[in-house]
Write a structure and sequence with these properties.
Helix content: 25-40%
Distance between the termini: 6 Å
Number of strands: 10
Shape: globular
CATH topology: TIM Barrel
CATH class: Alpha Beta
Radius of gyration: 17 Å
CATH architecture: Alpha-Beta Barrel
Strand content: 15-25%
Number of domains: 1
Order of helices and strands: EHEHHEHEHEHEHEHEEEH
């Protein structure tokens, strides 16, 4: 089985590192370390799509949980359409109800927005993001997602690190939902063999490193004094480990 490597990146430089390191695609987002990732701008999407690697855009308008108002879902749907128009080959979406169940209506709208592009002959990949790790019953939920037309889930198996969620990951793979399973969350070289043994079809990680910020944020610029970048050695190491193990 060929297992894909997806790198979460936040800029053009990160996409170049992922491409040159042999990754199969990138998930593009912003504010990854501070928020878990937010929707990238159209300008950033345009620039990263020009790098020459598959780009899946995270569609998440704010930090926090995944229970959205109708107005927020309207914006998520608009962002899905904008990302596809900008050249994204996939989108990464998710929405829940306050009881921990899948928000079927919202996800249906998000899937429909992504599939609109397919009428013109473009395939758009749809990943349900780590909102899956907040649901009450992930195995039942992946079955629902399959019926809604979602292609893949990104999950740690409900654990803080994917390497500790192996039992749930294996159960998701074994659910025969038609939805493939991508392991993400605290992935490192040591966890790769066990993750692949669980049957996942892809490995996801940010490969982040922090470097000093060369500029002064000033009174209105926040408090960060480091910048997050994509580490080339980490990308290359994971890609090599996945190739060896798979």
């Amino acid at each position: 089985m060929s297992v894909a490597v997806e790198i979460a990146v936040q800029d053009v430089a990160g996409a170049v590192v992922a491409r040159d390191g042999g990754a199969d695609r990138v998930e593009l987002c912003t504010a990854l370390g501070a928020t878990g990732g937010l929707t990238p701008s159209v300008g950033l999407l345009n620039a990263v799509c020009a790098v020459g690697i598959g780009v899946h855009a995270l569609i998440r308008t704010r930090p926090g949980g995944f229970v959205y108002s109708e107005a927020e879902v309207d914006v998520l749907v608009a962002d899905v359409r904008a990302a596809v128009r900008a050249g994204a080959s996939g989108v990464v979406v998710g929405a829940l109800r306050s009881d921990g169940s899948l928000d079927v209506e919202a996800v249906t709208r998000l899937v429909s927005a992504a599939r609109e592009a397919e009428s013109s002959g473009r395939a758009v990949d749809i990943t349900f993001h780590r909102a899956l790790d907040a649901v009450a019953d992930p195995v039942a939920t992946i079955g629902e997602l399959g019926k809604l037309g979602v292609d893949r889930v990104l999950t740690s198996g409900g654990a803080s690190r994917a390497g500790d969620g192996l039992a749930v990951l294996a159960a998701l793979v074994g659910a025969e939902s038609g939805v493939t399973v991508m392991a993400g969350g605290g992935v490192d070289l040591a966890s790769v063999p066990a993750l692949l043994a669980a049957g996942v079809d892809a490995i996801h990680l940010s490969a982040k490193a922090n470097i000093p910020d060369p500029g002064n944020t000033g009174p209105g610029g926040g408090t960060a004094n480091t910048l997050e970048v994509t580490d080339a050695a980490t990308v290359a190491g994971i890609v090599a480990a996945v190739k060896r193990a798979s």
